[in-house]
Amino acid sequence: MTEVNCTSASVRDVKKQCREIIQHITANRSLQAENSKWLLCNREVPSRLQGKLPRCGLSALSMANDLLRNPDDLSLKSDLARHEEQELDNLLKLAQLRGFSEHGEMYSAENLAELAKEFYGHKCIVLNGGLNDGNFIVSEITGGSAVLVAYDADKNHEPCQQNGHRAHWALVTGVLCELHGNSYEWKVCQQDAGYPALFHAVPSSDISFPKNCQAQHIHLCAKHGKSRHTAVWSMTNVANSNANLFELDPNKMRNGSFVVPEGGIFVGLCGKIVVMSNQR
Fold first, then answer.
1. 179-199: average pLDDT
2. pLDDT at residue 2 above 60?
3. Which one, of 264, 276, 134, lies nearest residue 211 by Cα?
4. Quick check: 138 and 180 in contact, CB under 8 A?
5. What is the rounded distance in angstroms from the CA atom of residue 149 to the CA atom of residue 139?
6. Given 56, 124, 177, 189, which residue is catalytic?
7. What whole-number percentage of the chain has pLDDT above 70?
8. What percentage of residues in the chain have a pLDDT greater than 90?
9. Which positions ≥6 away from 169 have C-beta within 8 Å?
10. SS in 3 state form for 42-77?
């Protein structure tokens, strides 16, 4: 089956994107299969645009910090735009001081994790092949963790495979998946008013994802520094793109000076994700 992404300019609302994805997947199913349930567990965060500098990793990291904060704290900022720009500037200064970046680029998942630990005080781990375990990703996201992933971004920002020449960072804010088995606690969810098979929840450490609950057709809600909108992408497409980050664009290397880890982005980014939590 063709993997589905919904990122067109006409589809901005996350719930609408998810309904369209479910309808596409279930269009030719039998009545019995249609009785399955879908979970959308997502939390919106303020956008953090990267501007003209290659600060996609820093933008994603800043949004990840917001994802882990109390929503009430975000509403108390009196001058949000000025605060955001100052935060990105301070992140860049620290990244430059540590030798992680020259202009805002972050070509090492380990360096991004170290930056998160030092600047925000969050617990961070870097996982190889983390997107290969769907149940783990669903469990981490529904439980309130922030997941940052590098991928090749197409012209419309969707995941593609360009050998790393269009490497870009995104923050996973939520997950859409079909759940089989009766072990999930659906009482903590709110049923979608227009689509009864879809249930909504907000990521929280209070949510426990049962080990015997199998997640299928997993899609990731994602934000990044080049758009104010949340996209919904197939996790398979994101994983394939993440595993295809082999080399930095040669033209980019010739036209600028960047901090690249020994071994290139194949060592720094390929197959890696950063998982953040607010545990100190």
1. 82
2. no
3. 134
4. no
5. 16
6. 56
7. 86
8. 70
9. 56, 57, 59, 60, 61, 106, 112, 148, 149, 150, 224, 225
10. ECCCCCCCCCCCCCHHHHHHHHHHHHHCCHHHHHCC
pLDDT at 8 over 60: no
pTM of the predicted protein model? 0.90
SS (H, E, C) the chain: CCCCCECCCCCCCHHHHHHHHHHHHHCCCCCCHHHCEEEEEECCCCCCCCCCCCCHHHHHHHHHHHHHCCHHHHHCCCCHHHHHHHHHHHHHHHHHHCCCCCCCCCCCHHHHHHHHHHHHCCEEEEEECHHHCHHHHHHHHHCCCEEEEEEEECCCCCEECCCCCCEEEEEEEEEEEEEECCCCCHHHCEECCCCCCEEEECCCCCCCCCCCCEEEEEEEEEEECCCCCCEEEEHHHHHHHHCCCCCCCHHHHHHCCCCCCCCHHHHHCCCEEEEEECCC
Q: Which region among 46-50, 213-217, 240-244, 245-249 has the lowest average model confidence (pLDDT)?
A: 213-217
Instruction: Reply yes or no on whether 56 is catalytic.
Output: yes
Assess whether pLDDT exceeds 90 at residue 78.
Answer: no
Residue 45 reports pLDDT greater than 80: yes
The per-residue pLDDT of the chain, averaged, comes to 88
Tell me: pLDDT of 1 over 50.
no
pLDDT of 28 > 70? The answer is: yes
